[in-house]
């Protein structure tokens, strides 16, 4: 038709539709443009041109085409809806919302417009309105798979996991090849601790769409959380092949490689991590062992939150303290602080413990819950759980999770308490405007480094760290034998019982230098995880020239055995990049001296704080060489080693480090200082 009538606009438009159906986008654009040039009043051609330009993400020209169509047909609801989609993609959310609303005014039974308007409102934080609109879309068109999936996503974010699951299943019933719904349902099942169900969903999403990078990354995250690190590495690498600009996957891959001490291309990896630190999708938990400059962390951690006015609580009566944690159970945090809530002076304070995780039926959970009058399980409470805290009249709320697993920082962002402070469980700044203080000490957080924290520093007089070892292990009854762990009876045994991710190449080089200078010595590490053992030994052999037999690995042990066997080591070598925290307390309680080297971050200075509180500052190094020298002296001057071990053994029961009652008294004084400032109308400031 075009050959015989070159000015036949309809033929040009029809051919544009053919090219578009064949995926020939540029040819389609050319033919639609020719059609509207031939016939400036050709409505369908303008609409088709706008659609194909939208698909090609040429948004400015798409807007122009849709506006021209609306000039010809001002009440065309579908064009308003498509134009709104382009505005949304351009980031013009308010304009998109107004345009979606106009589309709905023109066509009240327009499910796509309801669903897309809901998406825009969700982005604005108007969650309840979004839910109502998703529901309206489903009322108009019950078989709308995308609306079911989007509604499920919002319900999942609210913690309504069972409801979310039902809607994901409906979306998949309607559209059995809906890969996004499978992947998102996998996220819900993962949150419900159904690991196998999550794996099945991610695997199905990948079967449907092998190029679905997010599904590969989600599958990797389940493998990572399950300890299947090699499988996680493989899936993260696949995700990055499909989507090279995927910072979240890259950081998680880097973390997995660090977990197993795979240091191939380590320097380049670290440079890339620093280069992407400002990317919005990076989560704080990926950062503590990668960024050496804490100020980077603050830039990443600052996220916009809703601005909620802080309500004042009347003075008088007892100070109400709320401990909030997902770790009231068999977790290192509970191992440290399980006695603290029950030791408070109840004539001065009223204690509340809010559990963010279900009861694991361990003695740790039972101890905390039985020793406080107010133990509340919030694990099934949604975002409006702040109502409970406000009803309880909490004065000071302590965030023990930070950005660790199980955290519910969205609750803190709602400002349910007049004062909110970070404490113990997360080794770093929150970077959040809704956290007022971080409870720390002068060694861990020197005042000259205050600008590295978004919170104001609230100093404990000795150390912010505490251990419950005096109550858990009042005496170490059974003395284990070195032969049980294949340790030489006559060797100097250096140990480190941390997870292997805390070791970096420079740390292992220092340790190998120490082994070289102390010939009759071995290094004792844990298979934490087991897959890292070969990499550590290979690096020691190939890079440092150390016989792999001098590095002895043992399995991870139950808590009591883990603490007891610390007596078998002569010296603990701390990891400077990220110190032993709970692990450091374990070895010190066993009477084993620990050598540490503080760096810039909070996580790298905790061991120094512990040693200073213990009264052993001579074990805190000022440089890498000094670190090696301290360790070598302990390994070669056996009289000196004996005296230091005797000192540590004595100080563990006479210093404040393991004194829970003294710690609680100091903590109460600090909390009262915070409250007095608040009562007096003073600004939050360093204490």
Automatic annotation (TrEMBL):
Ranges where the O-GlcNAc transferase C-terminal domain occurs: 297-479, 482-667
GO biological process: protein O-linked glycosylation
Keywords, in A-Z order: Glycosyltransferase, Repeat, TPR repeat, Transferase
Pathway(s) annotated for this protein in UniProt: Protein modification; protein glycosylation
Extent of the signal sequence: none
PANTHER family: UDP-N-ACETYLGLUCOSAMINE--PEPTIDE N-ACETYLGLUCOSAMINYLTRANSFERASE 110 KDA SUBUNIT
Name of protein: UDP-N-acetylglucosamine--peptide N-acetylglucosaminyltransferase 110 kDa subunit
Organism annotation: Ciona savignyi
């Amino acid at each position: 038709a075009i050959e015989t009538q070159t000015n036949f606009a309809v033929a040009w438009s029809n051919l544009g539709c053919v090219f578009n159906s064949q995926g020939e986008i540029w040819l389609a654009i050319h033919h639609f443009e020719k059609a509207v040039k031939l016939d400036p009043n050709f409505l369908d051609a303008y609409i088709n041109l706008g659609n194909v330009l939208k698909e090609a993400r040429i948004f400015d020209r798409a807007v122009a085409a849709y506006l021209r169509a609306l000039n010809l047909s001002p009440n065309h609801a579908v064009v308003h809806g498509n134009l709104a989609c382009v505005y949304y993609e351009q980031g013009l959310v308010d304009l998109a919302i107004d345009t979606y609303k106009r589309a709905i005014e023109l066509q009240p039974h327009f499910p796509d417009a309801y669903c897309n308007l809901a998406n825009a409102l969700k982005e604005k934080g108007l969650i309840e309105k979004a839910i109502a609109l998703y529901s309206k879309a489903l009322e108009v068109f019950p078989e709308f798979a995308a609306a079911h999936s989007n509604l499920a996503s919002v319900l999942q974010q609210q913690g309504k996991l069972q409801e979310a699951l039902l809607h994901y299943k409906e979306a998949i019933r309607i559209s059995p090849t809906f890969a996004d719904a499978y992947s998102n349902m996998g996220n819900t099942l993962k949150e419900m601790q159904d690991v196998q169900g999550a794996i099945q969903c991610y695997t199905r999403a990948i079967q449907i769409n092998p190029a679905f990078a997010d599904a590969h990354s989600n599958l990797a995250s389940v493998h990572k959380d399950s300890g299947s690190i090699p499988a996680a590495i493989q899936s993260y690498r696949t995700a990055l092949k499909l989507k090279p600009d995927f910072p979240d996957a890259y950081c998680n891959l880097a973390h997995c490689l660090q977990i197993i001490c795979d240091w191939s291309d380590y320097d380049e990896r670290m440079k890339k991590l620093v280069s992407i630190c400002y990317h919005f999708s990076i989560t704080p938990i990926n950062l503590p062992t990668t960024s050496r400059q804490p100020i980077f962390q603050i830039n990443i951690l600052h996220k916009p939150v809703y601005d909620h006015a802080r309500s004042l609580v009347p003075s008088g009566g007892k100070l109400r303290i709320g401990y909030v944690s997902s770790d009231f159970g068999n977790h290192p945090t509970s191992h440290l602080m399980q006695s603290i809530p029950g030791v408070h002076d109840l004539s001065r304070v009223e204690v509340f413990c809010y559990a963010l995780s279900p009861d694991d039926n361990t003695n740790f959970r039972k101890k905390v819950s039985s020793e406080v009058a107010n133990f509340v399980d919030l694990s099934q409470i949604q975002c409006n759980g702040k109502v409970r805290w406000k009803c309880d009249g909490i004065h000071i709320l302590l965030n023990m999770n930070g950005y660790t697993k199980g955290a519910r920082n969205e609750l803190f962002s709602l400002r349910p308490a007049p004062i909110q402070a970070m404490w113990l469980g997360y080794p770093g700044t929150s970077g959040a405007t809704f956290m007022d203080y971080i409870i720390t000490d002068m060694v861990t957080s020197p005042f000259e480094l205050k600008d590295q924290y978004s919170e104001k520093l609230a100093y404990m007089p000795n150390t912010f760290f505490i251990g419950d070892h005096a109550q858990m292990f009042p005496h170490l009854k059974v003395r284990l034998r070195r032969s049980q762990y294949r340790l030489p009876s006559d060797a100097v045994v250096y140990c480190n019982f941390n997870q292997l991710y805390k070791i970096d190449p420079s740390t292992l080089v220092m340790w190998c230098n120490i082994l070289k200078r102390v010939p009759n010595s071995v290094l004792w590490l844990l298979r934490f995880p087991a897959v890292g053992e070969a990499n550590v030994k290979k690096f020691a052999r190939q890079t440092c020239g150390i016989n792999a037999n001098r590095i002895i690995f043992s399995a991870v042990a139950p808590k009591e055995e883990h603490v007891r066997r610390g007596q078998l080591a002569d010296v603990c070598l701390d990891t400077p990049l990220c110190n032993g925290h709970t692990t450091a307390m374990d070895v010190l309680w066993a009477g084993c001296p620990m050598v540490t080297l503080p760096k810039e971050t909070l996580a790298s200075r905790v061991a120094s704080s512990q040693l200073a509180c213990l009264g052993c500052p001579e074990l805190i190094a000022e440089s890498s060489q000094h670190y090696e020298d301290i360790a070598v002296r302990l390994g070669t001057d056996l009289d000196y080693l004996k005296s230091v071990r005797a000192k540590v053994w004595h100080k563990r029961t006479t210093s404040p480090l393991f004194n829970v009652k003294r710690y609680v008294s100091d903590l109460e004084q600090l909390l009262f200082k915070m409250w007095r400032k608040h009562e007096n109308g003073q600004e939050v400031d360093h204490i």
